[in-house]
Amino acid sequence: xxxxxxxxxxxxxxxxxxxxxxxxxxxxxxxxxxxxxxxxxxxxxxxxxxxxxxxxxxxxxxxxxxxxxxxxxxxxxxxxxxxxxxxxxxxxxxxxxxxxxxxxxxxxxxxxxxxxxxxxxxxxxxxxxxxxxxxxxxxxxxxxxxxxxxxxxxxxxxxxxxxxxxxxxxxxxxxxxxxxxxxxxxxxxxxxxxxxxxxxxxxxxxxxxxxxxxxxxxxxxxxxxxxxxxxxxxxxxxxxxxxxxxxxxxxxxxxxxxxxxxxxxxxxxxxxxxxxxxxxxxxxxxxxxxxxxxxxxxxxxxxxxxxxxxxxxxxxxxxxxxx
Length: 323
Known about the structure:
NAD(P)-bd_dom_sf, 12 strands, Ketopantoate reductase family protein, 2 domains, Rossmann fold, eight-stranded mixed sheet, KPR_N, four-stranded mixed sheet
């Protein structure tokens, strides 16, 4: 199976590594600049943080995607804010099946822009974090996999079988979900409050207070309630039952938040990305606020965290100086 991973960040590199474990796959990675040169010369090097091992894969790379190039599946792993620039390139390509991987608040719009049948476009979220440093990827996960499905409907049997074939024999869990537009919006309801606290603590989540840990989950609950008010069919079993105060699910999430703010997991899984992807988080914040503007949902915990962080203008300026 010919597979293209379009984007060589942490998500794309981990995905390319996993797909390359299936000997029936021919995997190509779209990368650019010095990072492409590094992969070409030294191989795709990944330090699997929790597993205490390093892998090196020889994965061929390309720098551009030509319209006539055809792949059995194209996995798109660029940040959501970068998609408007590359969607015309993807739309013109002759490949049939595309999977957009990562946080995406506009799944329906992306589906429409691709001008493909709905059963040829999927959206997924891969459960790893990390960063790039010293010529390698640091990838953090307890067990790698992807939640994947159509924008608002289950994937066709053909698409599911194609994905299962791509990961055949690979330690990679596929979880099929029927409404990824809902799933991804609900995911942002948790991710954004965590990012607000990251910014308030200047990237050091160990400085987060007990009150901020509580407010992150209160805000996630408010975010889901707002999405419901906006007409999003929120899956309560997967979301609100974990955020509502005094419930078993909330107690589990309280423990997770404590671990995240008191161990290196917080830096590797949240704050590293938040501090190095300010433009992406700003994009998601604006998208979420646009949905909120269509409702009258009170979100006091959300507003408290959002107001405690520096302004987006300040954060964007800092990120440019950091680069």
